[in-house]
Amino acid sequence: MSDKFSMLIGGQWVEARSGEVMERHTPMDGSLVGVYPRGGREDVDAAVAAARAAFDGGPWPAMSGPQRGALLMKVAEKLRERQEEMALRITREMGRPIRESRNEVRETAEVFECYAGRAWQSLSEAVTHVPGSMGLIIREPVGVVAVITPWNFPLLLLSWKVAPALAVGCTVVAKPASYTPGVCLMLGEMITEAGFPPGVFNVVTGPGSVVGDALVAHPGVDKVAFTGDTATGRSVMRSASGNVKRVSLELGGKSPNIVFADADIRAASGGAQIGIFFNQGEVCQAGSRLLVQEEVHDELVARLIERAKSLRMGDPMDPETRMGAIVSREQLDTILGYVGIGKEEGADLVYGGSRKSGGIFDRGYYMEPTIFDNVKSSMRIAQEEIFGPVVCVITFKDEEEAIRIANDTIYGLAGAVWTRDIDRAMRVVRRVKAGTMFVNCYLGAGLPLAEMPFGGFKQSGFGRELGKAGMEQYTEIKSVHMRLTS
Ligand code: NAD
Predict the structure, then answer these.
(1) Domain limits of the chain?
(2) In this predicted structure, what is the pLDDT of residue 309?
(3) Marked catalytic residue, from 93, 250, 399, 465
């Protein structure tokens, strides 16, 4: 299964102006999955011009919220219809188990449904409590939005930006990660088929250092919505400053998963497993630091090792597989490099630590689930984002020490607390500096995720995606002061 794709600019499917292409080979077994245009600066200029024209002169921003919502709902329907095809492409492009790719497509449809509904609600307010005058606080679409996304949830993270931006009337130029451009272009097909006016949604594929950088610096772009590495985020902030663009950044993490002695240790070990091994640990909010109270350390680590042993690794296309391939050779090397660093720093490697071999594993990039015990907070493996299935177990004595270690990081994306004491849970929730906290769960408690704002404290970024906050960040506020004659 290898397909040739074109880019979407101004409602047309086009090749790169240079004629260059880029190939993607799957990390599952090395076979070719797709050939994509290798866009350049001229393609960015064309896409921004199309998005600019669609915003400044097109019907899109002037349409009513319900009209826009109806089109977003059509995209959700198409996502559900083509779920299997999209899931296959995600798995083949980035190596994750097919079961999880199916979930990603379903969750993406939910995000479009959520913002289809929200498009019916006005975000503006009226100020009416002073006789003889009235104030209006109007929310207007910010304009042309550059959407730049990573490869680890290639469709879902796109929807977190695209759906709310379109719902409020913005136009978009999307730049997907070079490992995973296919689903973004497939989303472009659905948006086109749903009947969105030309130029409202554009996609330029190509290297981040060229296409991403040109988009971020482009004077025709009003806002940049970026998800990726913290180092790239810093560069995005600098490049976006030329015309004082609005910027929102969703960056890296090193999230603390804190287990107290009074917790349900069996459940906590399940949460620890999901926290670090889900999606091969390629998750920005991975629970990569497992903070354990000393009384339950041995039991929790033993349980986690048992879970790692029974975690089914294999062909990502097999619905029974729970851990698939790492996205690339470079990423695998980075992870293995950190295993070496951890050993040198004196942490105890108690499980895994190697590239998986034999059968399909020899043809792709597969990493064993890996557990480091007796890690100190000052070690590099406890401070730097590894972005792989590697967990650092750090022991603490009491609540004060747990909070101190939890906050001993430049990041602040997420965290979890496991305890049966609700007062303690709430104290920890309030004192850990992170944008999302889980209580007695990891990654979710069954709530509709599209309604729960997501984003970082500290160097995990700023701005919030999802929910009402995720829509507001694509708007400007205009205050109107009116004197009324009676
Ligand atoms: P990355 O920063 O390398 O790339 C992200 C995107 O930016 C890609 O599309 C890339 O092509 C583009 N890019 C690269 N250089 C650029 C530049 N100079 N200017 C503009 N764009 C540029 O990140 P990645 O390796 O694709 O993704 C992994 C990272 O993303 C991890 O750090 C992870 O924590 C983070 N992430 C964060 C969240 C979140 O919501 N906070 C979610 C998922 C991933």
Answers:
(1) 3-251+463-481, 256-448
(2) 97
(3) 250
284 annotated active-site: yes
Domains 3-251+463-481 and 256-448 share a fold: no
Residue whose CA is at the smallest distance from ligand 1 atom 12? 208
- pLDDT for residue 1: 43
The CATH class of 3-251+463-481 is: alpha beta
| Region class of 132: left (phi > 0), else alpha (psi between -120 and 50), else beta | left
- Determine the pLDDT at residue 23: 97
For the CA of 229, the nearest atom of ligand 1: 32
Q: Ligand 1 site: residues with CB under 6 angstroms?
A: 148-152, 157, 175, 177-178, 208-209, 212-213, 216, 227-229, 232, 235-236, 250-253, 284, 385, 387, 413, 456, 460-461
Which pLDDT belongs to residue 2?
54
Q: Whose CA is nearest to atom 21 of ligand 1?
A: 212
Sign of CA dihedral 59, 110, 417, 391: negative
Instruction: Give the C-alpha separation, 275 to 60, whole Å.
Output: 41
State yes or no: is 250 an active-site residue. Answer: yes
Residues of the chain below pLDDT 70: 1-2, 486
Q: Which two tokens stand for residue 166?
A: 């379109």
Domain 256-448: give its CATH architecture. 3-Layer(aba) Sandwich (3.40)
Q: What is the CA radius of gyration of the chain?
A: 23
Instruction: Say how many Å lie between the CA of residue 92 and the centre of ligand 1.
Output: 19
How, if at all, do strands 370-373 and 348-351 pair? antiparallel
- Measured in Å, residue 232 CA sits from the centre of ligand 1 at 6
